[in-house]
Q: What sequence folds into this?
């Protein structure tokens, strides 16, 4: 009995010394909420928010502890990202991007690069999915140039990954990744003027004939070889999916909370009573919250299955991967509908840019323009279900 109590005490002490990702996110979510408007006006996360996220090490959730990470799972990544996105969509977006990139870099790079990038305290990285880099091979490495866009998380990152297309091998496309320090990048500061996610600093940037040593490069195919510990372009996309789902879910629950808090105080324009007395509002909250929670629960079940597969050194079964892609679409679409409903039934003060619910609307519409949640994917999945198309949907 005493041994059992001692083990629990040791476990609690370890948890206090190394809190899990969700606890870290909860500890700073209020600060992130309070700084959200200032970040929008700056076009990047404020210094306070950037410092808090880095101190909490929330950009390296899936990395092993020996390489400076939190040794977290996909489920833990989802939970922590959702908590941050609920406080501020831009901060949640930076989390999903930098976690995907850091995990990809850690997977593809050698031990020297891992120490250089992740061995000096918490760090964030950014990248672009589009392989637009051009390089010339020189002694000891490559001279890299290119014009790039969508530099999400660039304002608080120390490293950037840019990819170059290579000749096909074995019937598929290959790429070479180049990892550069931020000081080698020319940021176009005024290039991010958008509807939503204004604080993500998703800027355009230029790399002009910069030397990248060969050890800070690695080559990878588009398709995975089945081993999740080997880098691939499709693997990078898959690494971003749980974060994308969490981003949308967090914003939707924030929008719902805003509506629920305001409805008892908001007078109906064409009827007596308050917004909370409206049957349409009552029904909508009941239906959309239930749909959102159901979609979230199912998606997290699939992420847990994926975590189990990765722990065994294999990818998720192709049929379950298709289920996971479909569940992502279902969750993100439910989240968008929830935000639209909350916005539609809010008071007229929602038109002010300072209103958190307006920010929810702008952020979710901007974020869900990302390619991995394009509605066309549902059509592809439908073809598979109908037997008109076979194999995995490669998006």
A:
């Amino acid at each position: 009995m005493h041994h059992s109590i001692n083990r629990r005490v040791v476990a609690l002490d370890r948890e206090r010394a190394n809190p899990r990702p969700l606890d870290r996110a909860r500890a700073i979510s209020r600060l992130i909420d309070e700084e959200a408007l200032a970040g929008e006006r700056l076009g990047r996360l404020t210094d306070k928010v950037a410092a808090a996220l880095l101190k909490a090490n929330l950009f390296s959730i899936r990395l092993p502890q020996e390489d400076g990470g939190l040794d977290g799972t996909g489920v833990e990544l989802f939970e922590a990202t959702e908590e941050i996105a609920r406080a501020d969509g831009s901060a949640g977006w930076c989390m999903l991007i930098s976690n995907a990139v850091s995990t990809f870099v850690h997977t593809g790079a050698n031990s020297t690069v891992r120490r250089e990038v992740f061995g000096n305290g918490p760090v964030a990285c950014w990248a672009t999915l589009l392989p637009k880099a051009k390089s010339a091979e020189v002694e000891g490495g490559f001279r890299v140039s290119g014009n790039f866009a969508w530099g999400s998380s660039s304002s608080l990152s120390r490293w950037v990954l840019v990819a170059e297309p290579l000749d096909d091998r074995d019937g598929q496309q290959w790429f070479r990744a180049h990892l550069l320090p931020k000081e080698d990048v020319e940021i176009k500061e005024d290039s991010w003027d958008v509807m939503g996610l204004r604080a993500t600093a998703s800027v355009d940037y230029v790399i002009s004939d910069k030397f990248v040593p060969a050890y800070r490069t690695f080559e990878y195919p588009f398709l995975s070889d089945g081993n999740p510990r080997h880098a691939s372009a499709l693997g990078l996309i898959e690494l971003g999916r749980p974060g994308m789902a969490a981003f949308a879910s967090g914003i939707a629950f924030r929008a719902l909370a805003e509506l629920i808090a305001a409805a008892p105080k908001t007078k109906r324009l064409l009827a007596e009573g308050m917004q909370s007395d409206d049957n349409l509002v009552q029904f909508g909250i009941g239906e959309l919250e239930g749909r959102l929670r159901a979609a979230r629960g199912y998606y997290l079940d699939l992420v847990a299955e994926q975590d189990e597969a990765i722990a065994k050194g294999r990818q998720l079964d192709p049929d379950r991967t298709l289920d996971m892609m479909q569940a992502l679409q279902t969750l993100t679409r439910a989240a968008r509908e929830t935000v639209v409903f909350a916005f539609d039934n809010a008071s007229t003060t929602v038109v002010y840019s300072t209103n958190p619910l307006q920010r929810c609307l702008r952020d979710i519409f901007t974020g869900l323009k990302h390619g991995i949640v394009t509605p066309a994917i549902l059509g592809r999945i439908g073809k598979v279900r109908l037997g008109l198309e076979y194999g995995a949907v490669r998006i």
Remarks:
- The CA atoms of residues 158 and 183 lie 8 Å apart.
